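Treating backbone geometry as a discrete language has practical consequences that deserve illustration. Part of our work consisted of pairing the sequence of a single chain with a tokenised description of its backbone. What the numbers capture is local backbone geometry rather than side-chain detail. For completeness, the protein is quoted in full, as a sequence line and a line of structure tokens:
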Amino acid sequence: MIKVSILGSTGYAGQELVKMLVRHPEAEIVGLGSQSYIKQPFSKVYPLFRGILDMECQGISDNDLIEKADIIFLALPHGMSVPLVENVLKQGKKVIDLGADFRLQSPAVYSDWYKTAGPTPAQLAEAVYGLPELKREPIKKTKLVANPGCYPTTVLLGLAPLLKKKIINTNHIIIDSKSGVSGAGRGLAVSSLYSEVNEDLKVYGLPRHRHTPEIEQELSRLGQKDIRVTFTPHLVPMTRGMLSAIYTIPVKPVTQEEIQTVYEEFYRDEAFIRIFPKGEFPHTKWVLGTNFCDIGLNLDDRTGKLTIISVIDNLIKGASGQAIQNMNIMFGLAENAGLQKIALYP
């Protein structure tokens, strides 16, 4: 059994990690770290775990959490992971960081967008950007995975086949994304209160949402050229779920059927990518509680524009489920271990 510690276990992403790892056939939770609930049973913080996991939470700086684990998950706010990762690697353990600290390869870009110092270039050199469908081989060999952000996951999976085949105009990519409120985390904030978000729809983080440089960095890697995008995120009054509508233009004549074939062949062997048939488009409810990314496509014969609809559960494929998928790859397990789940419906 793989022994697992989760630092930041009492946030939404941390709680999802616990929920899935409790049922994982090859993993055992040996430690839970928290900033706010030290020495409190996890089942007191989340009563749904009563009688399932009553383990007491420790402080995130407690070295025992690292010593007794084979792999450590960090589900912490940005700016907190660097010293913890350094300690984990020094002890020869593996680590998956669900935060932003190791996603960007330029310390200057990180500092500009996150307004704090990040890892050094030497530390960044050890990290692999952990989008399994695109980085599987490097993930197998690394001890440090930077788990992707939720918005970037929808965008990168939505555009990767087109960029690999050089089908689209990379100067014309517009991303219109919408997320449930759980993406803001569990911390108290006026903007996340029920009376603030209910019956409301709003843009936020415009024009400098922190996922923008991550999206552009990885799209540029895929396209092998510098790519800039127009990215507009919205907050919608639902608990979880994420949908990105991506608009672009083909650079050569192409049919809907050819586009469908490109996607179906690119993701043919991927357990968690589902390509919808022509004329059908995914709903957030259809991936609720699962690690799936559902993708629908439309080539408008009238305008020549291509629309990609990419849908995930922001807490699962956008965070904790993807992290477990990465763990499975790092330890040579079946990639879908602990992740085989049908959406909660209705």
About this structure: The two ends are 35 Å apart (CA to CA).
